[in-house]
């Protein structure tokens, strides 16, 4: 058997790469799709989940909203009601609003919501990802906003508790003072009525 020439080897490599990319392009894009829904999206004609209309497989994730409920755009931000599924392998899978897809903020801990490559999202799923992070674990501006919001909520809760405690004390003092004033008034009325009787 004769060894392959470098030209035929490079041609075969080029051909296999072209076939790979052609197969990738022809396969449906399951970005943002829950694994249990992959079978739902595998037919040539797919019905919108709200039953309003149908669309062909080539319209799946084409960045144009065909279904009002967002069935056809699970992986883009085209539909206002759409939901994007973060697989978050190694952490907790979850849905996010599709408006957060490719918005330059890492919402999924696996970074799958920012697949256009305009921003680098490190995969933090193994490290706890979308679970509550400590203040030292901040990696995005959204995390900073979350931490600030939580701190404000804690401060607000403490302030509210202190205000309620202070309010309770004020109410108790007011009740005590009112009761004392009523007792003094009642005592004066008794004294006056006794003086009238003695006259």
Verbal overview:
This protein folds into two domains: 28-131, no CATH class; 132-199. The protein has two helices and four strands, in the order H-E-E-E-E-H. It has helices at 6-26, 141-198, and strands at 45-47, 54-56, 83-86, 94-97. It has a two-stranded antiparallel ribbon with strand order 1-2. Strands 3-4 form a two-stranded antiparallel ribbon. The N and C termini lie far apart (142 Å). 18% of the residues are buried. The model is unreliable at 11-28 and 132-140 (pLDDT under 50). The chain crosses the membrane at residues 166-186. This is Glucosidase II beta subunit N-terminal domain-containing protein.
Provide a brief overview of the structure:
This protein is mostly helical and about 200 residues long. The chain has two domains: about 30-130, no CATH class; about 130-199.
How would you sum up the global shape? elongated
Mean pLDDT, rounded to whole units? 77
Distance between the termini: 142 Å
The number of helical elements comes to: 2
Organism: Cucumis sativus (Cucumber)
Keywords: Membrane, Signal, Transmembrane, Transmembrane helix
Domain Glucosidase II beta subunit N-terminal: 13-148
GO cellular component, one term: glucosidase II complex
Itemize the secondary structure elements and their pairings.
Elements: H1 6-26, E1 45-47, E2 54-56, E3 83-86, E4 94-97, H2 141-198
Antiparallel strand pairs: 1-2, 3-4
Task: Name some characteristics of this structure.
199 residues; mainly alpha; 2 domains; two-stranded antiparallel ribbon; 2 helices; 40% helix; elongated
């Amino acid at each position: 058997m004769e060894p392959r020439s470098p030209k035929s080897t490079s041609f075969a490599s080029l051909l296999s790469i072209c076939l790979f990319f052609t197969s990738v392009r022809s396969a449906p894009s399951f970005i943002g799709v829950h694994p249990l829904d992959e079978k739902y999206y595998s037919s040539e004609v797919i019905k919108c989940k709200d039953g309003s209309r149908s669309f062909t497989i080539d319209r799946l994730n084409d960045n144009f909203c065909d279904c009002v409920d967002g069935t056809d755009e699970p992986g883009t931000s085209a539909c206002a009601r759409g939901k994007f599924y973060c697989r978050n392998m190694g952490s907790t899978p979850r849905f996010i609003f599709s408006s957060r897809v490719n918005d330059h903020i890492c919402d999924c801990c696996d970074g799958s919501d920012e697949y256009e490559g305009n921003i680098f999202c490190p995969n933090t799923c193994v490290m706890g990802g979308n679970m509550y992070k400590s203040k030292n674990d901040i990696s995005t501006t959204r995390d900073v906003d979350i931490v600030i919001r939580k701190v404000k909520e804690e401060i607000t809760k403490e302030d509210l508790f202190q205000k309620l405690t202070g309010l309770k004390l004020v109410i108790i003092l007011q009740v005590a003072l009112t009761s004392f004033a009523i007792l003094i008034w009642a005592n004066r009325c008794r004294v006056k009525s006794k003086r009238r009787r003695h006259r």
